[in-house]
Amino acid sequence: MNGIDTVGPQLSVLGAAGLILVVDALMPQHRRMLPFIALFGLIVSALWTVSWVGRDFAPADITTFDGTFSLDQYSAFFYFVFVGITATVVLASIDWVNREGRGQGEYYALVMTVCSGLMFLSASRDLITIFLSLELSSIPQYILAGWGKDKRSSEAGIKYLLVGAVASSLLLYGMALLYGATGTTLLDGIGAYVASPEAEANRGLLVLAMVLLMAGFGFKMAVVPFQMWVPDVYQGAPTPVAAFLSVGSKGAAFAVVVRVFIVALGADLLSDDWSMIFAILAAVSMTLGNVMAVSQTDIKRMLGYSSIAQAGNFLIGLAAVSGGDERFTLGASGVLLFVAAYAFTNLGAFVAVIAISQRIGSDQIKDYAGMWRRSPVLALGLAFCLVSLTGIPPTVGFWAKLYIFNAGIRADLGWLVIIGVLNSVVSAYYYLGVARQLFTGGDESTERVPTSPSISLSLGAATLGVLVFSIIPMPLMSAARDAAEVLTK
Amino acid sequence: MEGWGGVAIMVALGVGFGAVNVALSYFAGPRHPTPEKEAAYECGMPPVGDARERQSVKFYLIAMIFLLFDIEVAFLGPWAMALRDLGWPGFIQIALFFAILAVAFIYVWRKGVLDWGPETDPDYVRPPKPGPAVVKRYNYGTGN
C-alpha cells in the first residue's frame, strides 16, 4: 500500500481532528463528546504504533514516500511521548474549555493538528518534510497561544507568531544552503555527502548552513540565545496551552535536531564544531534559565525560565553525541530519555498549576502557600513533580540527569557536567522553594480547592508515569537506547 | 554573439524613437500651463479619497474559500492525468485529500461563512431609510 499505513498513527490523529470539526459543526448539542473523540483518536494512534512495533519493526527501518519519511523505533518512541502528552493536555483542558465556552471544536481540532505535526516531525527524513511538519505543528500553536480573551494572551500569540516566523525563515535559509552545497534534501544523502572527501572544499558553506539550522531549531528548542519569547508566551498563553508548548514543541524540536545532526551532519568534518557549539549553548542556557527563574514570582514564568534551563540539560546529551559510536548512542539516548522524563514531569506540574490557578484565580507563587491544607492531592502531585524536575533521587528526573551527565563525562565534557551539577543546585532553590511554600506558610485559609474528575485523571496519569519510571527506569532507558541506535546504523 | 547585431539595432531604434520624441516635445514644445491643462483628462476621473479604504472582512473569507476550491482543482487535474499510473494507491491518497477538503467545506458551510447576504445574520439590524439622495457633481473644465 506504498506507505499509507505507515502514517496511520498520524492519520488517526488528523482524522479525529476532522471528526471533531464536523461533529462541532453539524451536531453542536453533542459538544461534550469532543474531548472523547480526541482521546479515541489518540488511543487508535497509539495502538497503531504498537501494531507496528509488534510487526517486522526490528531490523531495517521502514522508509516510505521516497525516503522522506520513516516509521522506525526512533519515531515510534516519540509517537508514544506525543500521544501521551496530547492525551494529558486534552484531559486537563476540558474544564477550561467548557468554561471558556466559545470555539470548543476548534480548540480540540487545533490541539490534535499540533500533535500530528509533532509526530510527522519526529519521523521526517527530508528537509522539505521537516519544514512542512514544523509548520503544521507551529501554525496551530500560534493560534492556541492567542486563544485567551485577555491582552496578555494576544501578546503571547503575536510574539510567538513573529518569533516563529523569524525562526522559520532562518531555518529555510539554512536548508537552502544545505541543499545548494549537497544537491539533495534527503538527510541520508546529505550525510553521505558530508562524509565524502569532496565535502572538504565546501566546508564554509556547510558550516554556515549548520549554524542557520541551529538558530532556526534553537527557537523551537527555546535555548539561549533564542529564548526571549519563552517566559512571556508561557505566562500569557492559556495554562493548558502553555503546558502543551513547554513539552510538545520542545520535545519535537529535540527529536528533529538529534536526527538531523546525527544523520545528516554527523560526519567528523562537522560534528566537532556543532558539538562544541551545543556544549556552550547548554552551559549558557542552564545558567541563564536557572538564575532568572530564582527571582520569579509568577509560577508560569518560573516554569518558563526553568524550561530554558532544562533545554540546556538536553543539550548536554546533544553535545556528547559527536565522536565514537558508543558515545553517539549514549548521548542521543540521553536526550530521548530526558525528553520523555521531562515531558511527563513538567506536564504534571503544569496540570497541578491549571487546577490550582483555575480555583484561586492567581498564578502568584505566594498564593500557593498552604495549599497542602486546601488540597492535599494537588499539593502532593505538584511537589512530587517539582522534586523530579530538580533531579533528586530516586525520581525519574534523577535517572535522566544521571544518564545524561554520564554521557557528558564519557565524551570528555567534564566541565559541562560540573556546570550542570552546579545548576541543579541552583534549580533546587526555586523548585523546592515552591514545594516548601505548598506545605508551610499561608494565611491559614482552609477553603478547599476541589478538583474535577478530568483534571484528577490527567494529573494522576502524569504523576503515575513519573512514579512508575522513578521506581523502574530500566524499560524507559532501554527503549531510549533502542531508539537512538536506529540513527547510528 | 553572432547574429544578435540586428536585434541590438532594433532595440536601439525602438528605444531611440520613443526617447527622441519625448525629449523633442519636452525641449521644443511651447508650454503655457493652466489648471485645466494640468487636470487628468480623457483617461480617468479626478481621484476621490484615499486608496487605502477599509474593506469588509467578508472579502478575505471569500478569498480563503476560493483558495480551498482552487487547490482542490489544482490537485485534481494532475491526478486525473496520471490516473492509470497511480492506480488504487493514488485513488486512496486523493480520497484522503478530498476527505480533508470536505471537512473544511462542512465547517465553512455550517459556521455560516457562505451566508453572504446581510439578512441571514441574526444580529443584522436594517439601517434607517436614507434621506433624499445627495449626488455629488463634478464640474469638469470650470477650474474647481
Itemize the secondary structure elements and their pairings:
The complex is a heterodimer of chains A (489) and B (144).
Chain A: H1 8-26, H2 34-54, E1 62-64, E2 69-71, H3 73-100, H4 104-123, H5 127-145, H6 151-182, H7 187-195, H8 203-221, H9 229-236, H10 239-264, H11 268-294, H12 299-319, H13 325-360, H14 371-374, H15 376-390, H16 396-410, H17 414-439, H18 453-471, H19 474-488
Antiparallel strand pairs in A: 1-2
Helix pairs in contact in A: 1-2, 1-4, 2-3, 3-4, 3-10, 3-13, 3-18, 3-19, 4-5, 4-10, 5-6, 5-10, 6-8, 6-9, 7-10, 8-10, 8-11, 9-10, 9-12, 10-12, 10-13, 11-12, 11-17, 12-13, 12-16, 12-17, 13-15, 13-16, 13-18, 13-19, 15-17, 15-18, 16-17, 16-18
Chain B: H1 5-28, H2 35-38, H3 57-81, H4 83-110
Condensed summary:
The complex is a heterodimer of chains A (489) and B (144). Chain A is mainly α.
Mean pLDDT, all residues of chain B: 80
Percent strand of chain B equals under 5%
Q: Return the CATH topology of chain B.
A: Methane Monooxygenase Hydroxylase, Chain G, domain 1
Structural class of chain B: mainly alpha
Reading the helices and strands of chain B in chain order gives: HHHH
Q: Mind summarizing the main beta sheet of chain B?
A: none
Quickly count the helices of chain B.
4
| CATH superfamily (homologous) name of chain B | NADH:ubiquinone/plastoquinone oxidoreductase, chain 3
Helices of chain A, by number, come to 19
Biggest interface goes to: A-B, 10 and 12 residues
